[in-house]
Amino acid sequence: MRFPRPDKDEIISLLSITDPQELKELYARAYDVKTQYIGRKVWFRGIIELSNICSKDCFYCGIRSGNPSVSRYTISPEEVVEEARWCYEQGYGSIVLQAGERSDSTWTELISKLLRQIKEVSGGKLGITLSLGEQSKDIYRQWFDAGAHRYLLRVETTNAHLYKELHPPDHSFEDRVKCLGYLREVGYQVGTGVMIGLPNQSLADLADDLLFFYDIDIDMIGMGPFIPHKDTPLGHLVPSHNPEEAIELGLKMIAASRIFLKDVNIASTTALQALREDGRELGLLAGANIIMPNVTDTSYRRGYQLYEGKPHLDENASDSRDSLQQNIEAIGETIAYNEWGDSAHFWARTNK
Ligand code: SAM
């Protein structure tokens, strides 16, 4: 059953709220919807940032190919498999493999090999999400056949004009949307998302983003505040960036998405935590139900800074796990260990 298509003006009016009491009510309303459709629980996906080598040159991103200040790394296959095994042993039901975008065969074959090895070390029990950018339908299928079953590909913004402003001419919004279609056809649970608070982005644009999520019947949403990075063409925005405003708009977008889309998985992303230590917990209270703890070995974390202020660069995965568990329990939520945590929307969509 599909929920009614949200009304654009209604979305804009929720995103326009600034009164603290009304904001509280908005988050509480979204939390009620989450409780009803998902429960008061959180699923963990351990995220492994396996390489910062990227062929793309997005104007906002710290690991863009045109940033010479980044020292490039790729984690060895053995280390990736070890990090995945650690997640499995901790009871994290799933992992996310994320990296810059590459489509050469050395890379695509490495990913297939890693997927098979990770499936093997976890006896097939660890769920695997990929976040590896735009690829051909064939490659998406090869990775699906090798064991991945969810894919996150943000469209970044659905305002095609804004997309053009934020990317070099050879990056195409239409291609990105086409990739979401391929992923769906191959059989993945598909996630997308946008950056919130981009320069020249209006509340109407964000409402259109939410309508886009509805129209393509998305299973998962991974979106977060835009945070400028000094070594990018948007670096001049660093001094004027306002973390409080950015986090508030991010939380409102989570809440509105939960209220209107109801049963999708929504991630409380690291960018929220970069803006405020308890940002991810606030995301859960505004309707999100997924957290992606960083399990990348500390030695690589400095190399994967998409934006300024990436948190916990020196903290190892087990430190993060313990403090995260405490913080989540403190807000009355339960971590659902040893579960894949598939999108309820995916099952409703495919079993109809
Ligand atoms: N290469 C893959 C892709 O293109 O989907 C995954 C890696 S990419 C770095 C992951 C996400 O980081 C992007 O989709 C983008 O939304 C986000 N990102 C990049 N720069 C950012 C910034 N300055 N602020 C917030 N998010 C950012």
Any overview of this molecule?
The chain is globular, with a radius of gyration of 19 Å. It has helices at residues 8-15, 20-37, 77-90, 105-121, 137-146, 160-165, 173-186, 203-215, 243-261, 270-275, 279-285, 298-301, 317-330, 344-350, and strands at 41-51, 94-99, 127-131, 150-152, 189-192, 195-196, 220-221, 224-225, 265-268, 290-291, 334-335. It is an alpha/beta fold and 352 residues long. The chain has a single domain, classed as TIM Barrel. The strands form two sheets. Strands 1-2-3-4-5-7-9-10 form an eight-stranded parallel barrel, surrounded by five helices. Helix 1 packs across helix 8 (203-215), helix 4 runs parallel beside helix 5 and helix 5 (137-146) runs parallel beside helix 7 (173-186). Strand 2 (94-99), helix 4 and strand 3 (127-131) form a beta-alpha-beta unit. The chain binds S-adenosylmethionine. Residues 60-61, 63, 98, 100-101, 131-133, 153-154, 156, 195, 224, 226-227, 229, 271, 306-307 line the site of S-adenosylmethionine.
Principal-axis shape equals globular
Kindly provide the name of the CATH class.
Alpha Beta
Order of strands across the main sheet: 1-2-3-4-5-7-9-10
How many extended strands? 11
State the separation between the terminal residues, measured CA to CA.
Answer: 7 Å
State mean pLDDT (0 to 100 scale).
96
Radius of gyration: 19 Å
Structurally, the number of domains stands at: 1
The secondary structure category is alpha/beta
CATH superfamily: Aldolase class I
| Secondary-structure element pattern, one letter each | HHEHEHEHEHHEEHEEHEHHEHHEH
The CATH topology turns out to be TIM Barrel
